[in-house]
Amino acid sequence: MEEKIYRAAHVLVIPYPRQGHINPALQLAKRLASKGLKTTIAITKFIFKTIQPQPPSSLQFETISDGFDERGRFAEAVSVHDYLQKMEAAGSKTLAELITKYKNSSNPIDCIVYDTFLPWALEVAKQFGLLGAAFFTQTCAVNYIYYLVYNGLLKVPVSSTAAPVSITGLPLLEPQDLPSFVYVAGEYPDYFEMLLGQFSNTDKADFLLVNTFYELEDEVVNTMHKICPALLTVGPTIPSFYLDNRIENDKDYDLDLLKTDKTICIDWLNARPKGSVVYVSFGSISSLSHKQMEELAWGLKQTDFHFLWVVRDSEDLKLPKGFIEETTNKGLIVKWSPQLAVLSNEALGCFFSHAGWNSTIEALSLAVPMVVMPLWTDQPTDAKLVQDVWKVGIRVVVEENGIVTRDEIEKCVRKVIVGEKAREMKLNAEKWRKLAIEAVSEGGSSDKNIDEFVSKLGTTSYKYY
Ligand code: UDP
Question: How many whole angstroms from 458 Cα to the centroid of ligand 1?
Fold first, then answer.
């Protein structure tokens, strides 16, 4: 006898194994699960082994290999190129094994949502006849710039003395506002190749999901949508608790690669006056020179504001001598913070950031004005948008020797917290927060796009004989 059974479609989400990619992928996975999809996240065997994370209740974890299961990429890979090559080989093989494992279960995988840094995942999905959704974790502006470069429509490198670049949907961009790989010749060629490679097979992808929201980047989203009709904005991918609060128990990112002591940061912030603290963080990868660390440290001291500064272990030794002792009354230095809880604390006056995309969209979503000091990759473009389009912050001026001086740091922090335009920036930040909440709330732009994605996957029927 034939029996029809209906089941929720099963989506496998594969993040690139770095903090700034795992966070948005996990959050997108939680949103998809909240819409009734069965959702699994594939993390690397190395991360699973070292962190032993507990999956949020709505998801399950599986593992694939990036080729460095024992000691991890930083201990084992000889170069970025080596890492990317081995990850593609081991990742493709173990992803195929995972899909096969589920194939004969009651929950076969229907769709792979893959970070665009892993275009090989789409090839594997297609070998198995599955749907494939590319997930872009940078701004639509940056994605579009890379799209133009990949397709030969923007020639690189753009000389640092060239005239501003005009791109439909974006403000005029000085060369220094473009992603660093586009104007610094030969900088990290393997990463640049990987970023352009995001577009190597997107014509085969069934969906292009972007971690932004329509209202934030409407013009460039419209422009890109004309060429890539499968594009859907689905952000901000931050825990529901901080936005629409529609998803139960969704308060954290749930997978921190570094250990954090939440209580220390929050207790310290709770004891500071409203709007008085500078939160300083450069994300999970970026590194400052000794000289820059020194300028930043003394610049923060000069502001005379309280500061909470994330200094990862790898940066620790660069703190200038005597700094900690001289600033014990003013500052708290931690190795990793619960960033969302920090940004949403009333004590925050401004976020001194590298303008990494997650940090930026988190600050916009939590209405925190910024001082931005972009270092590389997409950060210069994010910084341009923060200052000139969203008008929620100030970008530091860099000296010819590449250093941002302590006086400049002090000046920018003052401008954002107590300067003439401080109130305007705060009001703008509040406006973006409101729009971010609306985007993910029922019927909002991102919510509708997620519904569209989910309905296209639908429920699946299959037959027993
Ligand atoms: N983050 C955090 N604690 C910290 C610093 C960063 O939880 O002390 C999180 C932050 O909330 C963001 C991510 O790490 O989600 C960093 O991503 P981003 O794109 O800002 O920077 P990247 O690390 O990719 O350069």
Answer: 33
